Amino acid sequence: MKTSYQDIYSVLKLNRLVIIIVVVAAFISSAFSGWVVYDTYNKALDNAFAINTNGSVIPLKLVSQKENFMVEALSHIELFHTYFYNIDASNYEKNLEKALWLGNSSVDNLYRQKKADGVYNRLLQYSLVQKVLKIESEVVTNDNIHSFKTITQFEINRGMVVDRYELITTGNLIQVDRNFPNNTHGLLITNYFEKSLKKLSNQNQ
After folding, report:
1. Which residues contact 75 (CB under 8 A, 6 or more apart)?
2. Cα separation of 149 and 145, whole Å?
3. Can you list the pairs that 181-188 forms with residues at least 24 positions away whose Cβ atoms lie under 8 Å?
4. What percent of the chain is predicted at pLDDT more than 70?
5. Distance (Å, rounded) from C-alpha 37 to C-alpha 25?
6. Residue 146's closest CA among 171, 172, 107, 176?
7. Distance set, CA 125 to CA 17, 32, 101, 181 (Å)
8. CATH of segment(s) 62-204
9. How is residue 98 annotated by DSSP?
10. What is the per-residue pLDDT across 126-180, written as a single tens digit (0 to 9) for each?
């Protein structure tokens, strides 16, 4: 004969079974959700998204972004050195103004120092022509810090005499908002420093 205690015991066993099933199902669901989040995160590391002009979403690989950054960084550095060092009496004000848009106060301080030293006055007084011949840059990224080293060869035409020099400069790059047409690459040179300057012999020319 089945007693009330046996009925209660059966109900408790059933409840226990239901609870175990629910806990196991919840664990499996949580584990699956965690895996989905992890997988989505990993995919997001390799992709970025941009909005096209028609409103559609365009996936962009971060690898491609890094490649684009390197191209823009080298172009930005070359543009700056061209503006800053390719100068003569007729264009130095315009070129230097453009160069100052591409760097921070470290560039401005160097410009002010050169101005105080009479570099640009001599440019006007003797009608000197300073022409950039070659720019070679190397950009290194470490812990999201982008540093560069640039070797610039330029010549100074003094009329009857033409001297050639090699200048080594260093600095860092940071990303800023693009400014058209003043800073189209959206990069800014910081910690800019003229490391060394040497006059090249005729054999190097």
Report:
1. 185
2. 13
3. 182/98, 182/101, 183/101, 183/102, 185/72, 185/73, 185/75, 185/76, 185/79, 186/72, 187/72, 187/73, 187/76, 187/102, 188/102, 188/103, 188/104
4. 80
5. 18
6. 172
7. 97, 76, 27, 32
8. 3.10.450.230
9. H
10. 999 999 999 999 999 998 899 999 999 999 999 889 999 999 999 999 999 999 8
If pLDDT is split at 50, 70 and 90, which confidence band does 58 have?
A: low
Between CA 77 and CA 96 the distance in angstroms is 14
Q: What are phi and psi of 6, to 5 degrees?
A: -65, -35
- Fill in the amino acid letter for 160: M
- Residue 73 has what pLDDT? 95
What integer pLDDT is reported at residue 167 of this predicted model? 98
- What is the Cα–Cα distance from 82 to 39, expressed in whole angstroms? 46
58 to each of 50, 52, 96, how far by Cα in Å? 5, 7, 38
Tokens of 164: 């050639």
pTM beyond 0.85: the answer is no
Amino acid letter for position 113: Q
Confidence of residue 38 (pLDDT cuts 50, 70, 90): confident
Handedness of CA 63, 65, 70, 75 (dihedral sign): positive
CB atoms near residue 8 (< 10 Å) = 10
Q: How many residues can be counted in the chain?
A: 205
